[in-house]
Structures are given as C-alpha cells and as structure tokens.
Amino acid sequence: MIPHHRFDGPPGAPVIVLGPSLGTTLDLWEPQLAALTRTWRVLRYDLPGHGGSPAASPGLTRGLTHGLTHGLTVDDLAAGVLALLDRHGLAQGDRRVAYAGVSLGGAVGTALALRAPDRIASLVLCCTSARFGTAESWRERAALVRAEGTKPLVETTRSRWFTAGFPGAERYLGMLRGTDPEGYAACCDALAAFDVRDRLGDVRAPTLVIAGAEDPATPPAHAEVLAEGIPDATLLVVPGAAHLATAERPDVVTEAIVRHLTTTTSRRTA
C-alpha cells in the first residue's frame, strides 16, 4: 500500500522523507518545514488510517490471509515507503534519500536502513525505540481502540506526548481524534511485533538519535540503546520535551536535524 503523501520544497533538491508518529499525520512535521524546504525536497507521508491514508484492511491486520494469521508489521510500513520512492523514481542507483521519523515513523526509518541500506543516505531517529514496551500492552491498546475508538486515549496521550502546560497540544490531539480506529489498531499490532535490538549494528546510515528528556513513552534510556547499538550514531537529549519533541521544542530539534543532514549528505546523494 502506497501511503498518502505530499512534496514540499524545490524540485531537483536532495530529498528527505519524514515519517510521523502513531496517532499523528504528516502535519506533525510542519514546525520543521520552513527550515528544511530551503535546501531540501521534503516528502511527508501518512500512516495507515491516519490523515489521508486509508486504513489497512481488517483482513490483513486481524484475520486470516491464505490460512495464516498476518498482522501489519513495521517492515510492511517500510515496504510502503520504498514503493512510494519507486513510484517517484527516488533512491535508485546512486541517488539516495535522507529519512527522519518520530516514534513509529522512526521505527520505519530503522527498518528502511536495515532493509535497503543502499537507499538511505542519512537517518534521524526521534523519540523512538528499537523495542516499544511489551507486545501485550500494544495488543490491549489495539483491542480498546477497535472497540471504542481513539477517544479513550486522548487524555493519557496528552501526558505522554507533551510536558505539562504545553500550549499547542490540542492541535496534535485533534490528529489522534481523527485517526481511523482500525488504522490506529493496525499500527499498534505493528509495534507489538517490532524488535530490532539485535540488529542495530547492521545500520550503516549516519544516524542522529533524538530523545525528549521528559518522554515517558520512549525515554532517553531507549535512545541510548539506539545510539550505542548503531555504529557511530550521535545522541541528543532535548530538555523540556516529552514524546513529540519535534512539536514541543522545534527550535532545538530543527537545528539538530539540519546540522546532521548538512554534514552527512550532499546534493549529489538525492
């Protein structure tokens, strides 16, 4: 499935793909857009059932496919991004792209770097993990959302995504409210099965790992696992930020991303 997506920035510029978190849309990256589009062609996409992307089929995510139980996986999401790149003739031959992702979007980035190392020139993993909690907790959340929608998650999500008193929370929580329950639940299934802790040493893209200092969902300890496991990765812990550090501290995060991209890629790689 090729996700809903959009391009911004000058045609012919090097490309960076931006992946959103569970419960948000491609608009999560708007605080970074002005800075990135000065020199980059920015490709943003929506996860299944989020924003403009259709939900993954319930038959794929919950039922039996040709007699086998098959839930959506992070690798499936990475395959969708690769199909998107193929559609637009990107990251082929010696033309590579940069990738930055938040949370589940970051997991997709790790999967891409492992699955297609020759297509990823630079990687930013923001507020993400090599393993997101227990499979049971994600399956429980998926079951809740399939039964009651995303509304029961809103207040607990507020405290995970943002530090207390962050004034811009409602805009992002509105993205969660608008997410299709099956699409959200399918992404929970994908997170339940995701675990690449023993494969981090195979990531070859120059990597910046960013953590929110007050992130309860993927705390700095998760970022340390990524930074220590990925060869030559750099770690930045952002003060005054929880899980959506791109939204809460765009000043620090945007500067770090631009600096990383500038030093690890060139116009010839995209």
TrEMBL record:
It holds the Pfam family Abhydrolase_6. NCBIfam families: protocat_pcaD (TIGR02427). Coiled coil: none annotated. The keyword Acetylation does not apply. Its EC number is 3.1.1.24. GO terms for molecular function: 3-oxoadipate enol-lactonase activity. It is an enzyme of class 3 (hydrolase). The gene is pcaD. GO terms for biological process: beta-ketoadipate pathway. This is 3-oxoadipate enol-lactonase. It comes from Microbispora cellulosiformans. Keywords: Hydrolase. Residues 20-255 form the AB hydrolase-1 domain.
